[in-house]
Write a structure and sequence with these properties.
Strand content: 5-15%
Structural class: alpha/beta
Low-confidence stretches: 1-16, 82-90, 213-219
Shape: globular
Distance between the termini: 114 Å
Helix content: 25-40%
Mean pLDDT: 85
Order of helices and strands: HHHEHEHEEHEHEHHHEEHEHH
CATH topology: Spore Coat Polysaccharide Biosynthesis Protein SpsA, Chain A
Oligomer: single chain
Number of strands: 9
Number of helices: 13
Number of domains: 1
CATH class: Alpha Beta
Radius of gyration: 29 Å
Length: 379
């Protein structure tokens, strides 16, 4: 029987032919492709995969804070006895400014002008700075109001975690302990700027007419803190740590949100640093980082639950959210800085005009300083 020459099976002679080329291994192009793709994978992975959860607040840090908060609460209990808090009815109440920063204090020269624009201001304010320990903020004006003794013992902060709550509470507790005359506590960031003079702000929060200073025993004012209950994103924010995690301490109908920056009365500041019940819920890690902004919920929820009538319901810090990116508000750059911008930022639909504004890029300092005397501090 003859075998057809058209058979597809190669003969032994054809296999040994010098013109015969073996088929390439499929592993070779796959390996080459993998090698070429590895750099792209390393670049894209952080942008595609969800970020790892941040480390929780450590137990030693929690204990240190608890000790500080207990001391602040105990001192306040002692100073609230019938004896005058300052030992003199002529003592002037102060405003404590709490700077929360993780970079340089970019606008410290502008704030220096804010605080020292009038010699009579010196006994009306105190300053405290919580600077992230991973940075070393430079003091632009040596010997000025931002001296090194104004920097409090601080711990690392991370966006989207309860560390920002802890930092604000740390500032409040330190200011409560440091000076019994501190009656209002204003939280600002390194990207905040003043929109009015210090005297204008002082008279507004204390409701002073004709620059008459009220006695401490007569101070019964409200905290300026934004409290929102009907935002379309509030349900996602409430469940950021998982379903039903916040109950029973914080039922959904009691959950609130609002601006991170506020001006609290001394009474409310003591309430914040003495709280343990709500803190154990808000300190929990979030499962949905994109919906988690604890510093915009904790203070609002606590004060709304404990003393809603003692809060104005609005903040004194103007923030532009019209074109926010990745949870950050609009950032103003030098080309936008003008007299008209300052006037626009001051406007408010509430009883008081806005006193501060954010978020400004560091290179806005020069144009802001150029208009400080004639615009910003000319009320």
């Amino acid at each position: 029987m003859m075998i057809s020459s058209s058979s597809t099976s190669p003969s032994s002679s054809s296999l040994s032919s010098p013109y015969f080329l073996a088929a390439p291994s499929p592993l070779i192009p796959a390996t080459i492709l993998l090698v070429l793709c590895l750099p792209a994978l390393f670049y894209l992975a952080p942008h595609i995969l969800p970020p790892p959860p941040p480390p929780p607040i450590s137990f030693p840090d929690e204990l240190q804070d608890l000790s500080l908060f207990r001391r602040a609460t105990a001192v306040e209990t002692q100073t609230n006895k019938p004896k005058s808090r300052l030992g003199s009815t002529n003592s002037k109440p102060k405003i404590a400014f709490l700077f929360l920063t993780n970079t340089d204090l970019h606008f410290s020269p502008l704030w220096e002008r804010f605080f020292t624009g009038n010699k009579s201001n010196r006994d009306l304010y105190t300053l405290y700075v919580h600077a992230d320990p991973t940075v070393n903020p430079k003091i632009k004006i040596p010997g000025g109001v931002f001296s090194e003794d104004r920097f409090i013992p601080a711990k690392k902060t991370r966006r989207g975690t309860a560390t920002l709550i802890a930092a604000a509470r740390r500032l409040l507790a330190t200011a409560l302990l440091d000076d019994p005359a501190n009656q209002f506590f204003t939280l600002v960031s390194q990207y905040c700027i003043p929109l009015h003079s210090f005297n204008y702000f002082y008279d507004a929060v204390f409701e002073i007419k004709s620059h008459q200073i009220a006695e401490l025993s007569q101070l019964k004012y409200k905290s300026f803190i934004e409290i929102i209950s009907d935002d379309p994103y509030i349900w996602d924010r409430y469940n950021a740590r998982g379903g039903n995690v916040m109950v029973p301490e914080v039922p959904f109908d009691k959950f609130r949100m609002g601006s991170q920056f506020f001006t609290l009365t001394r009474k409310h500041s003591v309430l914040v640093v003495s709280d343990r019940r709500l803190w154990k819920k808000f300190r929990l890690d979030c499962l949905k980082p994109n919906s988690c902004y604890p510093e915009e919920h904790y203070f609002q929820t606590l004060l709304s639950m404990e003393d809603p009538k003692g809060c104005s319901g609005y903040t004194l810090t103007r923030v532009n959210w019209t074109d926010s990116v990745d949870g950050h508000p609009h950032t103003y750059y030098p080309v936008e800085v003008s007299t008209e911008l300052i006037y626009v930022l001051r406007r408010s639909n509430f009883t008081n005009s806005y006193m501060f504004a954010r978020k400004f890029s560091p290179d806005c300092l020069e144009p802001l300083m150029n208009m400080a005397s004639d615009v910003i501090f000319r009320d």
